[in-house]
Design brief:
This protein is an alpha/beta fold. The protein folds into 2 domains: 136 residues, 3-Layer(aba) Sandwich (Rossmann fold); 71 residues, Arc Repressor Mutant, subunit A (Orthogonal Bundle), CATH 1.10.10. Helix content is 48%, strand content 12%. The longest helix has 15 residues. It is globular, with a radius of gyration of 18 Å. This is DNA-binding response regulator. Keywords: DNA-binding, Phosphoprotein, Transcription, Transcription regulation.
């Protein structure tokens, strides 16, 4: 079964370019397009895509609110949201991740990265690009805790090792890199990540990274 993709962007030329890239792949099928968030909601209900490639800045309804409605508790379908960003302009990416997006990708990313990101998100994983994540969170450090606030009570449900793993996830390390850093197996890391997500009520690694920064556990610019 091909992965069903809905393209959401207010620029028709960009949608055409994305369509050409994706339709060249045998396992991907573009099932529809939308020019704003309201159209996206209608298309999601009608077409039931697996992945929504979502722009942020659009008329009528932006990508953050559309993402919130597509992935929220009243969601109607299996759609995952992959947010598109120009990075230098989109200060709302963290909001989109908090709203339920499974990851984000730069609009000028190479075609192979776009294709792979869609496959990753469709498979239920988070598209967490380490370098972009760090730069993004560092850029908007002013919106995050200063470090003087007490850590939230939910963090105390984690073991010391789980806290270590959460910090490394927030800094963009893969399971293999975390395993090497902590001298444990990748299977052990996967188990720890699963426990972190369950205990904190988070959906994926993206939300875990945002949580770690927002809670003050990890601070922008820290090594």
């Amino acid at each position: 079964m091909a992965i069903r993709v809905l393209l959401v962007d207010d620029q028709p030329l960009l949608r055409t370019g994305f369509r050409m890239i994706l339709e060249a792949e045998q396992d991907l099928a573009v099932v529809g397009e939308a020019g704003d968030g309201l159209q996206a909601l209608d298309q999601v209900r009608a077409l039931q895509p697996d992945v929504v490639l979502m722009d942020i800045r659009m008329p009528r309804m932006d990508g953050v609110e559309a993402t919130r409605q597509i992935t929220g508790p009243d969601r109607n379908g299996p759609a995952k949201v992959l947010v598109l960003t120009t990075f230098d302009l989109d200060e709302y990416v963290v909001e989109a991740l908090r709203a339920g997006a499974s990851g984000f990708l730069l609009k000028d990313a190479p075609a192979n990265e776009l294709v792979q990101a869609i496959r990753v998100v469709a498979g239920g994983e988070a598209m967490l690009a380490p370098s972009i994540t760090r730069r993004l969170l560092d850029k908007y450090a002013g919106h995050l805790p200063s470090g003087e606030e007490p850590l939230p009570d939910t963090l105390h449900t984690l073991t010391d090792r789980e806290v270590e793993v959460l910090k490394l996830v927030a800094r963009g390390l893969s399971n293999a890199e975390i395993a090497a850093d902590l001298f444990v197996s990748e299977t052990t890391v996967k188990t720890h990540v699963g426990h972190v997500l369950t205990k904190l009520g988070l959906r994926d690694r993206v939300q875990a990274a945002v949580y770690a920064y927002e809670s003050g556990l990890v601070r922008p610019g820290a090594q």
